[in-house]
Design brief:
Elements (H helix, E strand, L loop, with lengths): L6 E6 L3 H12 L4 E5 L5 H6 L1 H20 L13 H26 L2 E4 L2 E3 L4 E4 L2 E10 L3 E3 L11 E2 H4 L8 E5 L3 H12 L3 E6 L10 H14 L1 E5 L3 E7 L2 E6 L4 E4 L1 E4 L3 E3 L6 H4 L22 E3 L10 H16 L13 E3 L5 E5 L2 H7 L2 E8 L4 H4 L6 E8 L5 E7 L3 H13 L4 H5 L20 E3 L7
Parallel strand pairs: 1-2, 1-6, 2-3, 6-17, 8-15, 9-10, 9-15, 10-11
Antiparallel strand pairs: 4-5, 5-6, 7-16, 12-13, 13-14, 18-19, 19-22, 20-21, 20-23, 21-22
Helix pairs in contact: 1-4, 1-9, 3-4, 3-6
Length: 460
């Protein structure tokens, strides 16, 4: 039966994870096919991390013009052409999408454009044609969640932001995860009036509590109004604008209402039932530790499994699976201490355990530093205090987590992720010479313990 199969591997989804899996498998000699229904490169390249970060960088440039005055620069004409920025970003995403096509073509992968669905454990239908495969990877990504309330259809989701050609002057955003917070900072940085509405007491649920508090204190200086403990009750048309009513009865008018309450696996229309692939309670594709679904010949990776929804994780999963099935499978990634960043203003970056997670495991030493970056001593820009934090196992001194809110945090914490993956201790940090003057050196000069917490610890 296997000899009659057209492919050794067929991948549904041409995003980062699916493309990596296809390329690695083809490089190991497998016959590989891949189908993509929308755009090569998936969410990250086209309507996610890449264009969103470019928008964030565009917003920060406006602040840089203001900061330049503190250094003696005479800057005039601060007008911003939102349409020109979005056109430039669109051109870059098209270039990157083309690179993904080139990667697949260069690897000898057969590419198909159109919707694909499972018809069995070893068969896929693409544009009506049935294809056989020894192994099938589901790398279909996720889609924005649209909560239900009167007028929800009048609101946008994150995908819609990248089709804007004019800057909305009044923006209401529902949500407090990284997507909501990033877009709140982007729109505010570009000059819009922004209201951020969220159910939790603080934004960024799941992140370290100390950084959440610091971000909540910094956002108003950027011009973001926080509405904690509230939800949107209804949205109505108000001419060309939208009248928004919150759960506490507060009303506001916005030109653009963005629903950013999370994403879910894009599992609909895949024919999972026909193949016998089970779903998790959250509606994602259920997998075991080896990313195998309930059908042995079918694996799933990335946002479709709704575990750690980060592009580098999807890429690593695709790489590991391809090598395991068609190579020697010796590559080892650390999926325990996964670094991540929120490109808000200022940005947040984190790796390893939060203080709350560490304390739940045992006695923990916490080291925290707060400072105003050197640049902002004379830039005049408010709300730019940085926070650096190390979470340490009190029993052996191993650094369990590193967290930072501040400019260049993602670049700095990426390096710390290597140290934590390698098992560095607080003593290793202490005996490392810093680079002066930098924000990064603060991590190796945290000499004074802020507190010791846990079952048997006395808080200092």
């Amino acid at each position: 039966m296997v000899g009659a199969m057209e492919y050794d591997l067929f991948v549904i989804g041409g995003g980062s994870g699916g493309v990596r899996a296809a390329r690695i498998a083809a490089g190991l000699g497998a016959r590989v096919g891949i189908a993509e229904r929308r755009f090569w490169g998936g969410t990250c390249v086209n309507i996610g991390c890449v264009p969103k970060k470019l928008m964030a960088q565009g917003a920060e440039l406006g602040a840089a013009l203001t900061e330049a005055g503190g250094f003696g620069w005479q800057v005039r004409g601060k007008g911003h052409d939102f349409g020109a920025m979005m056109a430039a970003i669109g051109a870059e995403t098209q270039r990157l999408s083309g690179l993904y096509r080139g990667i697949l073509e260069g690897a000898g992968v057969t590419m198909m454009e159109g919707s694909a669905r499972l018809t069995g454990a070893h068969t896929v239908a693409v544009n009506g044609a049935e294809i056989g495969a020894r192994h099938i990877f589901l790398a279909v990504g996720g889609v924005p969640v649209r909560p239900e309330f009167p007028g929800a259809a009048l609101c946008a989701v994150s995908d819609d932001v990248f089709t804007l050609r004019d800057l909305p002057r009044r923006v209401a955003i529902l949500g407090s995860g990284y997507i909501a917070v990033e877009f709140a900072c982007i729109f505010a940085g570009l000059g819009a009036a922004v209201d951020l509405i969220f159910r939790q007491p603080l934004p960024l649920r799941g992140f370290d509590g100390e950084l959440r508090e610091a971000l909540a204190a910094a956002l108003p200086a950027l011009g973001v109004r926080l509405h904690a403990g509230r939800m949107i009750a209804s949205v109505e048309t108000a001419g060309a604008a939208r009248a928004v009513t919150l759960s506490d009865g507060t009303g506001m008018v916005a030109d653009f209402v963005l629903l950013a309450t999370g994403r879910m696996a894009a599992a609909g229309g895949l024919g999972l039932e026909a193949a016998g692939v089970a779903l998790s309670p959250s509606g994602a594709i259920a997998v075991d530790e080896g990313l195998r679904t309930s059908v042995p010949s079918i694996n799933a990776i990335g946002d479709a499994v709704d575990q750690v929804n980060l592009t580098p994780v999807a890429i690593a999963h695709g790489h590991v699976l391809a090598e395991r099935l068609f190579g020697e499978g010796r590559r080892d990634w650390n999926f325990r201490d996964i670094p991540s960043a929120v490109f808000c203003s200022p940005p947040i970056a984190t790796v390893g355990l939060t203080e709350e997670q560490a304390v739940a495991r045992g006695e923990t030493e916490v080291f925290v530093g707060r400072f105003t970056p050197l640049k902002h001593r004379i830039s005049g820009r408010a709300g730019r205090q940085a926070v650096v934090k190390l979470v340490v196992d009190a029993s052996d001194g191993r650094v369990l987590g590193a967290h930072m809110l501040g400019e260049d945090a993602p670049e700095i914490v990426q390096g710390l992720a290597v140290a934590i993956t390698a098992g560095a201790t607080k003593r290793d940090f202490d005996r490392t010479i810093g680079i002066h003057p930098t924000a990064a050196e603060e991590f190796v000069t945290l000499r004074q313990m802020t507190r010791r917490v846990g079952r048997h610890a006395a808080t200092s």
